[in-house]
Design a protein that fits this description.
alpha+beta; 3-stranded antiparallel β-sheet; two-stranded antiparallel ribbon; 43% helix; globular
């Protein structure tokens, strides 16, 4: 994938009819969406504090804009889309506007690291709920 110059944007998804469809290049977003869905079925939402404790400390700041209870992937990527005014405070309204969801190309490496860390953290939370892990890897003691 060619990310182009520093000021270019990368489309990661497109909103329409109250749904966001992630582009095929970002299959990890679909994985994260699936993991989040599994947790939502069990408890209704992911607590931001629990996810933060399981998330690699170098990317925790990305959760700063999230609500205390996280229910969608769009909430998790808000930190990266905020710069392009693609904010998700009114997620459904924005998705209904047939809008593209972008990140700045100079943030692509950071975005990919964050997505990998999110996938790992959500997997850890699922494993912990199933009794496979006693504590999250980055939990503060």
């Amino acid at each position: 994938m060619d990310y182009g110059s520093r000021n270019d944007s990368i489309v990661v998804g497109e909103g329409s009819d109250f749904n966001i469809t992630w582009v095929d290049d970002f299959t990890i977003l679909k994985e994260i969406e699936s993991l989040l869905g599994q947790i939502n079925i069990a408890s209704g939402y992911v607590a931001r504090d629990a996810l933060s404790n399981a998330l690699d400390p170098k990317v925790r700041y990305c959760l700063d804009r999230c609500d205390l209870s996280i229910q969608s992937v769009s909430e998790l990527i808000e930190a990266f889309t905020f710069m392009d005014a693609t904010i998700f405070h009114n997620r459904q309204m924005h998705a209904s506007l047939h809008q593209k969801i972008n990140i700045q190309s100079d943030k692509s490496a950071e975005f990919n690291l964050y997505l990998s860390c999110l996938r790992d953290a959500l997997s850890t939370l699922i494993d912990t709920k199933n009794g496979a892990a006693a504590a999250t890897p980055y939990e503060q003691v």
